[in-house]
Structure formats: C-alpha cells, structure tokens
Amino acid sequence: MKKLSVIALVAVGLISASCNKDKTADTAKTGTEQNVAEGKGEALKADVAASKVNWKAFHKGGFAPRWGTLSIQSGELNVDGGQLTAGNFVIDMASLKVDPASVTEKDKKPADLEGHLKNPDFFDVTKFPTADFKITGVADLATAPADAVAGANKTVSGNLTLLGKTVNVSFPAKVDVAEGTAAVQAKFTVNRADWGIKFGTDETDPAEWMISKDIEISVDVKAAK
C-alpha cells in the first residue's frame, strides 16, 4: 500500500509538472464586469485585415495541444495625448479555424474539431456569433512577467464577453501609439469555465477530465485613421 501511494504521488507530480510545459502565457487576472473606459481623444478604426486573434488549447499534461485563429470583425482604439485611453473590438466566432498542423492523429480531422468547437459544447456560434472585448482601464507596467508578450509596457483591463457572459480580464500588453496609428499586442491564459464553457471539465468522467480548462489567447489589434 505504501509503495502504491508513493507511485501515485510521483505520477501526480509528473502530470502536474507537465501540465504547464506547453503554456507560454501567464494566467490573466479575472474579476467581475467593470465600467467601460470613456472613449476620450481620437477614435482609430481597427484594421480587421491586419488584426487577428490566435488561440491555443491543451489536453491535461500538455499533450496534443490544438491551436488556430479567429478574425476580428470590427473595433476601434481611442488615443488621447499619445496614450491609449479606451477601445473595443468584436470577434467573429464563426471564423474560428483549427490549424491542421495541430491535429496529427490519424483518426482525427481538423474539420471535425472545428465543428465541435463551434457547437453548443463549446462556443455555440449559431446562438452567439460574436464575442467582444471592451477596455476598462490602461495602466503603466513597470516590470513585465517573463511570459508576457515581448515589449509589454502596459496592463490592459477589459470586459471579455463570451456566450453572453462578461468577465473582466487584466493582462500585460505591448501598446504602441504613433501619429494616426495605435496597436495592442498581448498574450495571456484564461480559464474557459469562467464563461461557462464546461465541456470536458468533469473529472469524474474519464472521457472528459483530460481536457484542460486553459485557453491561451494572443491578440494583435492594429488601428489607424
């Protein structure tokens, strides 16, 4: 019995250690919905062709990561006195794509995973065709976490709405403001269960518990006059 207990503890330790091996972004701070920042200054329209959202999801233990893209449908960044003051963007959830390179198993197909992610088990894109992010605050960042996007200089907070539920998230970001242009780049991890996306989180079901709750999100929003 003692030998089995030791083996079990070692196994748990190995799994725990490996859970984060493919994660490359710190977990975003989350909280309740906040007041949206006032759009002071000049409103710059998001360049939807040049802007993008990348996502990455995992199985527990870091096994079989999946990744892909989402398109930004519309948005704007507000700039006043050379500083980002507010902004928002809308994500087209129907644009969700799975990179075929992330599905290497012979019995799996990227199209099948795309269909599953779009159905009610996950993002239910028929009922909720868009998601949106609205900035609630921008603050100077003195020291960026090791896993922050390169050049991170601000902490951006905003209301992220998925499946009709809004959660405030805060994360380090690289904010660049120049004459007539602005850009926000960020990389962070969220827990999908915070938005009620609970498929694959039942640890009593062997078919489900291996799916991680973590989703890495990389955002690159560019805006101009």
Rg from alpha-carbon coordinates: 19 Å
Major sheet details:
10 strands, antiparallel
Number of distinct helices = 2
Strand content: over 45%
Helical residue percent band: 10-25%
- Spans where pLDDT lies below 50 across 5 or more residues: 1-21
General form: globular
Distance between the termini: 69 Å
**SS content category:** mainly beta
> What is the averaged pLDDT score?
87
Give helix and strand order, one letter per element, not per position. HEEEEEHEEEEE
Q: Total number of β-strand segments?
A: 10
Your description of this structure?
Helix content is 12%, strand content 47%. It has 2 helices and 10 strands, in the order αβββββαβββββ. The longest helix has 18 residues, at 2-19. Mean pLDDT is 87; it is low at 1-21. The chain is mainly beta.
Task: Describe how the helices and strands are arranged.
Layout: H1 2-19, E1 29-31, E2 42-46, E3 52-59, E4 66-80, E5 83-98, H2 110-118, E6 130-140, E7 154-162, E8 165-178, E9 181-191, E10 211-224
Antiparallel strand pairs: 1-8, 2-4, 2-10, 3-4, 3-10, 4-5, 5-6, 6-7, 7-8, 8-9, 9-10
